[in-house]
Specification:
The protein is an alpha/beta fold. It contains 13 helices and 24 strands. The strands form six sheets. The chain has a five-stranded parallel beta sheet with strand order 4-3-2-8-19, with helices on one face. A five-stranded parallel beta sheet has the order 10-17-11-12-13. A five-stranded antiparallel beta sheet has the order 20-21-24-23-22, sandwiched between helices. The protein is globular, with a radius of gyration of 23 Å.
């Protein structure tokens, strides 16, 4: 019977990272993954393929609408959807092969098949051909990830009504795409197909889009997305979505049925913790399916840890990676910690939206006195030179100590700019600390510096 010092069930961002870090710490580590490609949902049918399509569709839109401003005349613009899809698949394949190489480099064993707990210290691996192998380990890490949530009444058939998996692989641009859900996934994929020519209707049950993002930023985003052509309907309660002939029908409470070509159900994700044998070791999930863990990722069962999307916290790939490293280090007896209050969030629309730390609404609800500084990209030199002047940077700082509590950005390269913001908050920086750092000119990060200066009313260029 194969035996390892540490065995991870799940080869996604949390799982393979945990195995590699464990190997670096001297453990004989292994990963169980049922999919041919490693990398989990994020790499195969999530973050990476969606960003590849977002980039391709953005380039098309730039050529169609923005190049003339730069004196570049382009005529007869067209796009080739199969080529876009192949590029997306090539990006995924290259990164997946890279993960395989990393496992080999670190001498991590990979088992192909579905992993299931089979009692204390044992995992049954069921291969695609039905062959079962039992692997032993006194340290088992659950990194089984998550799957799409489908609302009651939404009949997913994989063709006319589907989830993000199907929306990443349409074989033709739908004439009319209805997106159920105004969160990250729905807006990003809705943007892709809108750029490629589809009419896109977004149905959001709440009275705003991007719940969890600072409301001021989300409100500005709503206005911009509507100007771009997304038909976003708030307060829309979907009762039914189903295939109908060569299309689909979506029924909302109090509204006429919407006939469309495709439906994308993008209403969140849930832990994939069913059918992994938790009952064999006495682990119970919470009502939402999450596995409870302590600060060191230990579950209620001795010798079993859990990380990533299957435990409470932000369901994001980079959070899962942090969990993986911290969990492996905790198992090795080292100090480990993940600050879930400082996990950045990014929406890769155009403009991008990014955030880290507390929102203004959270501070108000908690009764925390704060100061706010904002700076518009229209006043930033680099933004002007690249014709990306939409949006702003918003800095929230404690009124008494000036310590930065949250930073929110909507604008060019927001997903990259949030890295400096996350570092600043991690080190407990004050707004003055950021303001006094010399930023290169002309660059987009100067907008963060100026927003930090604006907290004390000393911004120079606004």
């Amino acid at each position: 019977m194969p035996t390892h010092d540490l065995l991870v069930i799940g080869g996604g961002p949390g799982g393979y990272v945990a195995a590699i870090r464990a190997a670096q710490l001297g453990m004989n580590a292994a990963v169980v993954e049922k999919e041919p490609q490693l990398g989990g949902t994020c790499l195969r049918v999530g973050c990476i393929p969606s960003k590849a399509l977002l980039e391709s569709s953005h380039k098309l839109e730039e050529v169609q609408h923005d190049m003339a401003l730069h004196g570049v005349r382009v005529e007869g613009v067209a796009f080739d959807l199969p080529t876009m899809m192949k590029r997306k698949e090539d990006v995924v394949a290259t990164l997946a092969k890279g993960i395989e190489a990393l496992l080999a480099k670190n001498k991590v064993t990979r088992y192909r098949g579905s992993g299931r707990l089979a009692g204390a210290g044992r995992v049954e691996v069921m291969a695609a051909d039905g062959t079962a192998t039992v692997v032993e380990s006194q340290r088992i890490v659950l990194a089984v990830g998550s799957r799409s949530v489908v609302l009651p009444g939404v009949d997913v058939d994989g063709r006319f009504v589907g989830t993000s998996t199907e929306a990443l692989a349409f074989d033709a641009v739908p004439g009319h795409l209805v997106v159920i859900g105004g969160g990250y996934i729905g807006l990003e994929l809705g943007t892709v197909w809108r750029r490629l020519g589809a009419k896109v209707t977004v149905l959001e049950y709440a009275d705003r889009i991007l719940t969890g993002i600072d409301a001021e930023i989300a409100t500005e985003a709503l206005t911009l997305f509507r100007k771009q052509g997304l038909d976003i309907r708030l307060g829309a309660k979907v009762k039914r979505a189903r295939a109908d002939g060569n299309g689909a029908v979506v029924e909302c409470e109090g509204q006429d049925p919407i006939r469309c070509d495709r439906v994308l159900a993008a209403t969140g994700r849930k832990p994939a913790t069913d059918a992994i044998g938790l009952e064999t070791v006495g682990i119970a999930t919470d009502p939402r399916g999450f596995i409870p863990v302590d600060s060191q990722f230990r579950t209620a069962a001795p010798g079993i840890w859990a990380i990533g999307d299957c435990i409470p916290g932000p369901m994001l790939a980079h959070k899962a990676e942090e969990d993986g490293v911290a969990c492996a280090e905790a198992i090795a007896g080292r100090w480990s910690h993940v600050d879930y209050d400082l996990v950045p969030a990014v929406v890769f629309t155009h403009p991008e939206i990014a955030a880290v730390g507390k929102t203004e609404e959270q501070l108000v609800a908690a009764g925390v006195a704060f100061k706010k500084g904002t700076f518009p990209f229209r006043a930033n030199g680099r933004a002007r030179t690249i014709n990306e002047t939409t949006g702003k940077v918003k800095v929230l700082a404690d009124a008494a100590t000036d310590r930065v509590l949250g930073i929110h950005i909507i604008g060019p390269a927001a997903g990259d700019l949030i890295g400096e913001a996350a570092a600043a908050l991690s080190f407990g920086a004050t707004a003055e600390d950021i303001a006094r750092v010399c930023h290169a000119h002309p660059t987009l990060p100067e907008a963060l510096k100026e927003a930090a200066m604006a907290v004390s009313g000393t911004a120079i260029h606004a």
